[in-house]
Each structure stands twice: as structure tokens, then as C-alpha cells.
Amino acid sequence: MAITEIVTVSVNPDPANLEHVEKIFPGLKKYFTDPNPGILSMFRGWALEVEWNEAASFHNFIGSDKFKEFAGLVKPFVLGPPELQLFETNQSPTEPASSPVVEIYRVSVASDKVSEARAAWEDSVQKLNAKAGVKAKLTHGKSLNLQEDVVLGILGWESLEERDNATDDPEFMAGLDRLRALGNLSEAVVEFDCLI
Fold first, then answer.
1. Cβ distance 80 to 139 under 8 Å?
2. Residue 70, Cβ neighbours under 10 Å: how many?
3. Domain that holds residue 53
4. pTM for this structure?
5. Structural domain includes residue 58
6. Angle, helices 114-130/170-182, rounded to nearest 10 degrees
7. Is the Cβ–Cβ distance between 190 and 38 less than 8 Å?
8. Is residue 196 included in any domain, yes or no?
9. Per-residue pLDDT tens for 41-88?
């Protein structure tokens, strides 16, 4: 098992603001590495994907003065507080997150439907990988810190073309329909840069 965090935040879209964020971001990396609070990997795109060595490291970091200082530095550039989503996943998210194209699925479900949602996700991806030429990298897991039960799925693709061809598959679409029947399904495609 692995501890995977997905962080989403709305950044002020003003071009000057975005330019400034890009300029200061390399200096902000020290908050995650000096000393390392337990981060095994970190990827940045429209969201952050972080793998922690254990859930306690995440909670300790969020409660630390170092995190408060970091939050104070980035607050002027964002439109609201970030959403910190922590999941226990079946395996490390590093392989799918390091792919050229990453697809993140989230489905909010009733607590008695978590196992069914995880099974539906795994079945869908196994069917994808059974197709000739498709080798999607995946991880999935259940939320640890959200008020609602959320099942996360991360797929890694070699290209948008590979993703588009594979996800048009009727069996994969049927699997997504099973997930939609269980709860609110959202999906996003992102390109990540490795930070750690």
C-alpha cells in the first residue's frame, strides 16, 4: 500500500501572477526537501501529486510551522484554500504520474460502495490492459481524510493518442458507467513535471 496525496488549488489566472508563481516556485521546493518531511515523490501540473512514506508524515507536515510558512508565501497567488486529498492506494503512484499523460479519476460513493467502486475500476483497467498495445499504468485507492468516501484512480499514458484510442473502448466505457452508477465521477487529464 502507498499513501498518495492529490492537491488541487485555484491559482489567480492573471498572466503577471502566473509568471511570478513560475519564477518563485523553484525556491518553494525547499519546503518539501530541507529536511524532507517524508515525501517519496512529488509531481506538479494543474495539481500536485505527492507520495508520502506514511499518513502520519502528511499530518505532521500539515501541522508544522514549515507548512504554515509555505502557505503564507503562496496565499497571495491563489483564489482560495487548497484541497488536500489523501488516499491509501494499492501501489505507488510514481509510475503512472511519471507518464507523459496522466488521467485522474475520482468517484464519490457511499461507504458501503467503496469495495464495489474499487473492483469496477480495477476491472475496467484490466480490460484496457488486455487490449493489444495498451499498457496503462495504474494505481487506485480510498480517501483517508475527506468527509465523503472517494475512490481515486490514476492512469498513466504514453501519449494523448494512446489514451484516446484506449478509452474509447466499449468495455472501458461500460466500466466508467458502472462507476457513475455508484456515485459522482469526475475525470481530468494532466501533464506532470517531476519535482522530487
1. no
2. 16
3. 2-89
4. 0.88
5. yes
6. 170
7. no
8. no
9. 999 988 999 999 999 999 999 999 999 999 998 899 999 999 999 999
